[in-house]
Amino acid sequence: MGELVDFFLRSRNFILFVLLEVLCFYFIINTSNYWSATYFNTSNRYAAKILAWSNAANEYANLEQVNADLATENNRLRSQLTQVLQSKPAAPVQYQADSTFANRFKFTVAKVVNNTTQFANNYITIDKGTDDGIRPGMGVISPTGIVGKVKICNRNFSVITSILHSDYLVSSQLIKAGEIGTSKWDGVDPHLIKLNDISLTKKVSKGDSVVTSERNSTFPPGILIGRVRSVGIQPNKVFHDLTLDLATNFSSLAFVYVVENRLQGEQEQLEKQVETDK
């Protein structure tokens, strides 16, 4: 306490000067309309700037939670959309799927905690595991397109084989041409992927969308894989050389959706039985 008193005594002249300056400033503002308006306009301008900076900082701090909330909402909407598409009659055949088939896909939101794109065989780690119902073999998609397939799990984490993997194949379909082929990464550019096994007799247009086909039990049909970037001819072969722009940007991947096909085991068991009986 004594040191505080000594400080005020030593600084009494400076403190008195500051108080007098503040008092003069107060009288100037209150006795002059011009200076009063100038003061309030200036103070309001700086107060608005500080408030804007504060709001921007708060929004940035809450950005992760906002993204998580959006991912959850997208998950709900995707589930509803998939259910509607799976139950919709397919033209020209008047077919109506039953509720069990239409509701066979379930989606779980997960956050990406590790991701590689620079290797020939790339993997992704997410923060959901067996405790969340995740198991090997489940498909994984992003808000914009396909991602890969679950490889291994423990209680709290799962590792996904990325579509950016030299051995990963996806049954794919061109929307306009209607042809079914196989998408496979060539290990070069993480933004591009190849579409194989499309016959030269079929016309393929640049910009045509490529989606997951009906001929797989891992992904819902119609999940975007990419769009045709270039159309060429494979040397000494009867297939197009097709390069796609990948729909998923793996360099900025933050949230994914793990897809569970509730009927996958039943389908695969029956198909294996047919192979065994041959």
TrEMBL record:
<keyword id="KW-1133">Transmembrane helix</keyword>
<dbReference type="InterPro" id="IPR042177">
    <property type="entry name" value="Cell/Rod_1"/>
</dbReference>
<dbReference type="InterPro" id="IPR007221">
    <property type="entry name" value="MreC"/>
</dbReference>
<keyword id="KW-0133">Cell shape</keyword>
<keyword id="KW-0472">Membrane</keyword>
<dbReference type="GO" id="GO:0005886">
    <property type="term" value="C:plasma membrane"/>
</dbReference>
<comment type="similarity">
    <text>Belongs to the MreC family.</text>
</comment>
<dbReference type="GO" id="GO:0008360">
    <property type="term" value="P:regulation of cell shape"/>
</dbReference>
<feature type="transmembrane region" description="Helical">
    <location>
        <begin position="12"/>
        <end position="29"/>
    </location>
</feature>
<protein>
    <recommendedName>
        <fullName>Cell shape-determining protein MreC</fullName>
    </recommendedName>
</protein>
<dbReference type="InterPro" id="IPR055342">
    <property type="entry name" value="MreC_beta-barrel_core"/>
</dbReference>
<feature type="domain" description="Rod shape-determining protein MreC beta-barrel core">
    <location>
        <begin position="112"/>
        <end position="260"/>
    </location>
</feature>
<dbReference type="InterPro" id="IPR042175">
    <property type="entry name" value="Cell/Rod_MreC_2"/>
</dbReference>
<dbReference type="Pfam" id="PF04085">
    <property type="entry name" value="MreC"/>
</dbReference>
<keyword id="KW-0812">Transmembrane</keyword>
